[in-house]
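Posting here for the record, re: nicotinamide-adenine-dinucleotide.
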Amino acid sequence: MRKIKVGVIGCGMISGIYLKNCTETFNYIIEVKAVADLVPELARRRAEEFGIGAVYTVEELIADPEIEIVLNLTAPAAHAPINKLVLEAGKHVYTEKPFALSREEADEVLEIAEAKGLLVGCAPDTFLGGGIQTCRKLIDDGWIGKPYAAHASIIMGNAGDGMHPNFQNFLKLGGDPVMDMAPYYLTALVAMLGPVKRVTGSAQQLHKEITVTNPRSPRYGETVPVEAPTNVTATLDFHGGAVASLQACKEAFGYEPRMEIYGTQGILYVPDANFFGGTIKLKTATGELKEVPYSHGFTTDSRGIGAADMAHAIQSGRSNRASGRLARHILDISLSIFESSRQERHLTLQSSIDRPEPLPLGLKYNSLV
Ligand SMILES: NC(=O)c1ccc[n+]([C@@H]2O[C@H](COP(=O)([O-])OP(=O)(O)OC[C@H]3O[C@@H](n4cnc5c(N)ncnc54)[C@H](O)[C@@H]3O)[C@@H](O)[C@H]2O)c1
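Prediction output follows.
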C-alpha cells in the first residue's frame, strides 16, 4: 500500500499521541515527513522524539510538494486559517477540533476543499474506537429497540490549575466546554443516532476571570480573563425522533463523563466518548444489567485513526468518516446552543449529515479499509 506523506503543524501536548500512532500503528499507510510549530523548539523536540526527518516553518511545510495531508494540531483560533492555507496549497487537511469558530469560517474551508477536490477531516475520531463503534452496532442490531432519549454530560474543572502550558486557551471560545469537550459526546451521539434537528440551550459564564491557585503551576497567582460560557445545558432533538440532554461544564473539579441511550427495549450505558474504549453495559427490559464485549478494535488511544481513514479514502476514492462535513454539523449544534440561550428560544438547524459509515467488523488492529 502506498504511504501518504504527512506534515504536522502544532507540536504541543496532543501532538505526542498523534505522532506515536502515526509513526507506529498507522505507519503502513502514513509517513510523517515533517513537523512545524510557531515555537520551533517544540517542533525540534517532537522530531527528535519520533525520528522525523524535517523541522519546517509552517510556510515551508505547506509548500513541500511531497506532503499530501497536513495534520493541524494547533490552537482553536488557528484551525480554520491554517486549514484554508493548506487547502489552497492543494493538500488534504485533517484538523483538531473545534473545526472553526464560526459557520462562515467552516464553510469557507469546505468550499475550498470542494472546489479543489480535496478531503477535509476533523477530530474527534474517538467515535471510531471500539467503544462507540460497538455501541452503534448494538443500537443498529436492535438491542435497545428504538432509541427515544439520551443523556450526555461532561463535568470537569476549569483549567484554573494552570498546568496546561496554554491553559488560557480553555477560557476562550474554542476551548470552552461546548466547543472543546462537547464535540466528543455530540459526535458520538450523531454517529449512533443520526443528525440533530433542533437545539435549545442554556449557557452560563460564572466568572469574568480566574486566578491560578495551584502552586505547582509556573503561572501560579496569575489572573486570566474568562471569555466564554463555562456551564452549559442543552436539549437536542434528533431527526430520528430521539431527544437528548447535554451538559458541558468546566466549573467543577475532577472529571465526570456520562452517556446513556434509552430505547424501547433497553438502556445502553456508553463508555466515555473522549476515549476509545471503556466499559459498555446494557440493561434489558427485564432489568438485567450485563457488560458487553467489544465487537470492534481500536480500544486504546488511537488518535490519528481519523487521519489514517482519510489516507485510505484518498487512495480508494471513498469519503472519510471523521469528515469536515460531520464537524460542520457539530459546530452548528455548538453555536446554536449559545444562540438559543441568548435568544431564549428553540433553534432549528440548517445543517444535517448522514451518519458516518461504521467501521467493518474484523479489522486487524493496525488496518482500516
Ligand atoms: N491536550 C489535549 O489533551 C487535547 C486532547 C484532544 C484534542 N486537543 C486539541 O488539540 C489542539 C491542540 O491542543 P494542545 O493541548 O496540544 O495545545 P497546545 O497549546 O499544547 O499546542 C498547540 C501548539 O500549536 C502551536 N500553534 C498555535 N498556533 C499556531 C500557528 N498559527 N502555527 C503553528 N503553530 C501554532 C502552539 O505553539 C502549540 O505548540 C486543540 O485544538 C485541542 O482542542 C487537545
